[in-house]
## 1
Amino acid sequence: MKQRIKSVAALLTGLPSRARGALQVLGQDPVAPQNLALLLDEWAKKDDGRTFLLFEGKTFTFGDLSRRVARRSATLATLGVRPRDAVALMMSNAPEFLVNAWAIARLGAVAALINTQVSGAALWHALREAKSKLVVAGREHLPAIQAATRDADGAPPIVWEETRATQGNEALLGAPELPLLDAEPQPIPRPAVTLGDDLYALVYTSGTTGLPKAGRITHARAFTAAYGFGRFTLGLGERDVVYVCLPLFHSSGFLIGAGGALLTGATLALSRKLSVSRFWDEVGDTGATAFVYIGEICRYLVNAAPHPREASHKLTRIVGNGMRPDVWKKFVDRFQPGLVHEFYAATEGNVNMTNLLGLEGSVGRMPPIPWLDNAFLARFDRDVGAPVRDASGRCVACKAGEVGELLGRIDATKVTMRFEGYLGEAATHAKILRDVKEPGDAYFRSGDLLKKDALGFYYFVDRVGDTFRWKGENVSTNEVADALAAHDGVEVAIVYGVAVPNTDGRAGMVALVLQEGGHFSPERFYEHAMKSLPSYAAPLFVRLPETASLTATFKLKKNDLADEGFDPNRVKDLLFIRDDRLRTYAPLDEPTFERIQSGDLRL
């Protein structure tokens, strides 16, 4: 009852802001001058001393940030940064990240937000793809940049800044320090005039499959995210505090969290990174009324030991994506966070919906107005890996409850329905499907499988690549993972398919990360798996890694695990194989592996 009252109150309190946000999203003009970073100056003029940023016990006002951004833009201008130049930004969460990102935008340049976990060829690819004129780095990332660019032709110059509480000792590569350059007297340049169509930032895909691709974020898209999530979804106002522990190089952290706070004048409570042990202390100490989540954060919190402050917070609503059904109710019942606004969106996608009502498990629904609804759920052929087409060559719409791929109609005249694509035409064209409902139309392929109920509410099911076929049946990795994660002692279940010689399809395998102090019982896990899942879906192999294989944005590196397979010569973790005769999971050793490879042991 307490949770329900809190949710209703949050919904009603934010109605004026939500209504305003909806109108602003719909009224976006892609060719009008706009630049989110310049809102800092406007808030500073309105109330210079009001708090905008909280970070590790320090307070920064709108005036503080406005002046720091202006000075940094002057420094970057002396380093040759001009409008439309790409400047690579590789920093961990800190106030300096925002100062640099918004200084780059103030100059009309483009911040290429580099994942701090990438290195080597992937890092050099990201710098090269963006055609970076300059690299702005946190000092701790200099070794990775040095290694990636050491033998590269045309590597951009590097400047650095210390973003940690204590001074590091990394080699400086001969690169100058930004704060020292800031101290040199130089005129503050006038802010560049940027249009909605101009690029604001490049946000890279997570790199779970192949090299990361740079998604193009225009100024209009940045405003749409800030309006759509800051005002329409969360209903933020100047008295709100938004807690963000997601990396700022991720769209949820930068566009939704920081952008939403800046647009609405809310306070941004920034954490250096997710810490389950400190999470509720930071939420409580900052007085957070909302936070931005990724589903795995919620899973970690649910699996953590009780915290003395987990029920004494001021949260009234949260926003994010990826909260799985097995976590949702536990999270809400235990932590009472108010409204859970699960959303569906992709950094580069053109279909966006939000669960405004907190309906359990749903990612929301599209507006009940035809010209605002560009979503099309197409029946999907898993064997072919593409939407089904009828005799006339058109895609077939799913019925209520049927799983299909979500497509988004592309309309260049509407900001919310445009597909800005990636750097590189090949990657962009690969995501466009044509002649979907009528000749000549174009739709964005989300690569996501969803289903829709009779009332129009959508539910996420899987990524297209996150299904595999075994024993003639289609297996959803997410559905299997949800079932296995419910077993006692399991922190994370990572499910994927692995190739087995002399068989069709792929056999199911799960990497189980156990909770602290957890113990794996092969017999009990077998009993749980077979009771919770059909035989074809229960995993054939189990791997026990010490930690989950995650990207910095908490996405599972399934491809790395699938590539290693179940070969004990490649996998150093404990491996098990399902033994239906003994009703257990037996240790998988080299002789057993060789029998599988030769076909002597049939699965």
## 2
Amino acid sequence: MDHYDAIVIGTGFGGTVAATRLAAKHKKVLLLERGTWWFSPDKLGKPPVSAKPPFIDWAAQHNMPVQYWPRPDHRNGLLDFVAALRSSANKDGLYQYSMFHQADVLTASGVGGGSLIYSNVTIKPRDEALTRIGLNLTGADFVAARHWMEGDPGNRPKANRGWLNQVVTKVPLPGRDVSNLSTDDYLYLDRSRVLRDAAKDVSTTLGVPMDWAPLDLAVTEYDPNRGVDSDANRFHTFCERQGRCMLGCLPGARHTLNKTLFNQILTDPSQDVTLMPKAKVLFLKKVALGYEVTFEDRMNHGDTKTVTASTVFLGAGVLGTTEILLRSLKKGLPLNPDSLGSKFSTNGDFGAFCYKTKNPVYSTRGPINTSHVQLNFDGKFIKIEDCAIPAMFADFISKGLEVMDNLGGSASFFNLISSLWNSNLTERLFETPDTYNPNKSQTENEMVSNIFFFNCMGQDDATGKLELGGIDHDQLDLGWTQPVAQQPLWQTVEGLLKHFCDSMGGHYLPLPGWQGLLGPKKLVITHPLGGCPIGDTHETGVVNEFGQVFDAGKPAASKQVLDGLYVVDGAAIPGALAANPTMTIAAQALKAVTNALP
């Protein structure tokens, strides 16, 4: 049986933080990732961006499975997108869409974890939000996380990712403060400007301070004066405003973690780090050597294999990490069943549209998220971001919202079917071009030119519980003691968004699931948190503030932990952040790994 100094389960933010720190200590490490590599076809055949071997050559030499981002960027691309959905029939899919009774959760499965489909937003939550959920992260912890990404100011080459940038303009503006362009206002991306102006208007109407600002994004933006030796600048990789970050950046401008693992660890011959893709971890057991990790090896016909390590870092994501520990509990790992799976949070995720805005927003242009508005409204921390609509979804979304708008707010499924039947959907799909009519044969950009997509976050009650259910009690399930839709947060968010829609001159339309077209109201969650929350003892949490898993076989008052077992991903966050969680997960993971590797 193979033995390692450490096993890292998952290659998302927490897992990659652990991997880089372990590699720096020259540990023998095994990385287990249930997904495959994903790559941009636009990068094939281009010059290598470093002295390291081109990725495709390296992947072929090391028997690494590689798949390619969904494309093209029009409605035919939907076939590629569907082919990238993970299911029982397609275990190599990128997108995992988990459907539960009261909410659906979107996660990623691939080398690089959630960074493969996230919107690149890398920001610190408000201190008050951290205090409210009892998350003990200091300003120094967040500085350390930023340095891990960008490198220390005096030591840039050691960056694990790259510089953060703000992308709110139609073209790069090197050296300029894009938070205030003054007389050059026209240079803003239209949806960035529309959100800013609506925030000013609503702030006056409600008498509530609202701060609009560009978001810090983990993307490369063109700047001839920054890092003259930078490979990214030398080969002209920068954000091209294609509006498809979550579908994979074709120019390769995003700082995704697959790049970190490839560039910083896996191509370094001095490192003893092994990556095993297509490896689904089933459970852990405590043994004399540390821990046995049993997994399904789909690179080898799905055989079940077991390896051991002195230390295990769980970074398989909220759903993955919690499921592994729930299975491990059934195998005898001493965990508290009441705490395990608890404090699941939606992070206040909420999506809605402003349909038929008075000013164009051109939602296919720009990165997925460009700017945000933060406020404390009715005692609740809320963040509103503009959100792109990828071009391949434009036709589907524009027609769908037209149908929804024609329903006049009716939540009847039969009315929806009737409206679709009576719509001109067939005509649009097979329309004849007419050069005298600008509404004929529209581009994808035109189709959503007057549709603003809101991406909101807030602080929910974090009362969800993940458990093993199903007929064989072996399938992950998510539930709440009370209907999640009844939490006051959503009423507050919807009321606020209606004010924004009034300012934008359009109609408020929430996502179809929230309208209850197919049953009870459902949320779509893209930033799940909790399940293995930080607590003071095993009665109040699963891990301590350093991510160490509590030993529930010992008295709670002792606060004893299972030596060598850590949770380093979003599962440890004990509540909503009201912000994109990337920076917080990285900060918490660094705190945990630094404690584990003094």
